[in-house]
Amino acid sequence: MQNTPQQMQTMAVDEFGHADKLTLHTLPVPMVDAGEVLIRIEIAGVGIWDAMEREGDLVYNEVHFPRVLGGECAGTIVAIGDGVERFAVGDRVYAQSFMNDKGGSYAQYVVVSEKTIAPIPDGLDMLMAGGLPIAGITALNNLLALGIGSETKLMLWGASGGVGHVALQLAKRMGAHVFAIASGADGVELSKQLGADEAVDGHSDDIAQRARAFAPDGFDAALVLVGGDTVQSTLSLVRQGGIVSFPNGVMPEPKAPDGVELKKANGFADPMLLDELNRLIGIGEFQVHIAQTFGLSEAAQAQDAMKQHYLGKIVLRVSGE
Question: Of 8, 146, 221, 307, which residue is the least packed, with the fewest Cβ within 10 Å?
């Protein structure tokens, strides 16, 4: 850890509660053990899971305060532990710090397992990479669960959200025909820009009619990233033998029609998934749409911003704090 400070700035909570519990702390930089790397963070992603952890609704280990939040980031490796062979000091990487015992990514530094990091692929800058780790793996894992391949007709609910807009691009690279259901006119426009074969507003009253016209024989698969009665009503358009998939956090959870398989796929990273994600991203121009950028000390405002309409991802710019 040569040239690495012993202390760092973080946004952490001293007790569970509302966003105002997130305050600036000076804490020790975590120590690197075998199989781990230390990353100097430039960009940290902000997700609904962070707010759930802040409120105490997502507790995965013994609770100690102050608790540093943040499930994902991008930055540069500044130290490696024993046994790390795939990465070296100086590598630019993106990483998951979700459910990480050594603290989250709302910080200047984070220590994570080498199994949860990947090189930033060509074509993505640090800003976009910071919003990719959880959205990318969640999207990919669900598309794999759906068996997406050439000519698959996919219904994608939540196509303009953090996971959805990434899933749309990956599905197109996997050969799918994508019927994207997005949020608002701006969400429809983004979905079209990202390659959707057709895009509709989730609040319009002709979704089912347009979906039937898109897939007269039924959809092969549906990826559900938002909940609600309208979502559920459209799943009857998935054909017999088709599959519906969704990740943790979709409420209410979708129900599959008779003759349709229901799968639940999470967004936990591993080296094989990260390699496949980078391979797919590398096929062509790829976008992680960043809706808003906040400073590290503005993490509470960033979490509050998630309650408003936005497209893609919200991130913290950590470097320079």
Answer: 307
